[in-house]
Amino acid sequence: MLKLSKKTEYALMAVKYIAMNNGGNCITAKEISSGYKISFELVSKILQQLTKFNLVQSFQGVKGGYTLTRSPNEITLIEIIKAIEPNYYITDCMGDTGSVNDCEHFDCCMIRSPLMKVQKQIESIFKQTTINEII
Amino acid sequence: MLKLSKKTEYALMAVKYIAMNNGGNCITAKEISSGYKISFELVSKILQQLTKFNLVQSFQGVKGGYTLTRSPNEITLIEIIKAIEPNYYITDCMGDTGSVNDCEHFDCCMIRSPLMKVQKQIESIFKQTTINEII
DNA sequence: TGAAATAGGACTGAAATAGTCTGATATAAA
DNA sequence: TTTATATCAGACTATTTCAGTCCTATTTCA
Q: Which of A57, B2, B67, B87 is most buried, by the most CB atoms less than 10 A from its CB?
């Protein structure tokens, strides 16, 4: 279906929110949740995931929250996608797990390598787009 | 998930098959089905869809089958995607149905228009890729 | 008339997504 | 030391989408 997941959308919105309210203070999941009307639990999960990928830094406890680890013009779309989307390849056989040999169609259908080229081009777009551009 | 559907993959394979075996004769769904080991019914459906979008021409009855309506270097990836994928936009709010007003997040979250730009870039890749390149 | 082909709608099972629920851990402040 | 407010984390559920199947009708050639 060629669609970014809702989670990725929310991740972008969350990162944007943190970037915009960057007075040095932490931004809480609750703030983002109510600011954008997204389920609190969902936003939390996404922020935790972004933390794991070192895109945001978390602070626990009272007065805790999240800050960006880098400036918005140093964070690219591809990093967020890779952190959130379990699989961002345009076909299954391009993933880490799906090897060439998994293809059951006519000894690997041969549309794979041209599509790989398309994949690379799409990734290059994601690499070029920074968070700055979505603020 | 940012993935092309299996149907689109099969559509590409089918179009490729017809393009390669272009001795002027029709290619039947059965041929493609057994050649690529794809379910016959599925291939049929896909070819019917491609027919509706005038990418292939169908001939009914005995000796029937399919031919391309244009030469492979005149058919682009975007045309096949548009014919098969019900929704090829990277977010929901970009579709024909999903208007700006449908967005429930903070008066249209504002990541929409920068993502629209990304969408256009991706489409431009699909427009540039012809069937010739996948043969 | 029969065989071989496309046309097309209804249906099902499986997989992915979106979202919820519950409990644990950490920390600042009263 | 207690309490309120945060993050952290895993299990769970409902919904949607996708892939594939089934069945029937229609067309065409020999």
A: B2
Residue B30 — pLDDT band, cuts 50, 70, 90? very high
**A35-73 b/e with 16+ CB inside 10 Å = b?**
bbebeeeebbebbebbeeeebbeeeeeeeebbbbeeebe
Q: What is the pLDDT of residues A8-42, one digit of tens each?
A: 999 999 999 999 886 778 999 999 999 998 999 99
Residues in reach of strand D, judged by a CB distance below 7 angstroms, are: A 1, 28-30, 41, 44-45, 47-48, 51-52, 58-62, 64-66; B 5-7, 10, 38-39, 41-42, 45, 59-64, 86-87
pLDDT digit string (tens) for A51-65? Answer: 999 999 999 999 999
- Domains, chain A: 6-134 (1.10.10.10)
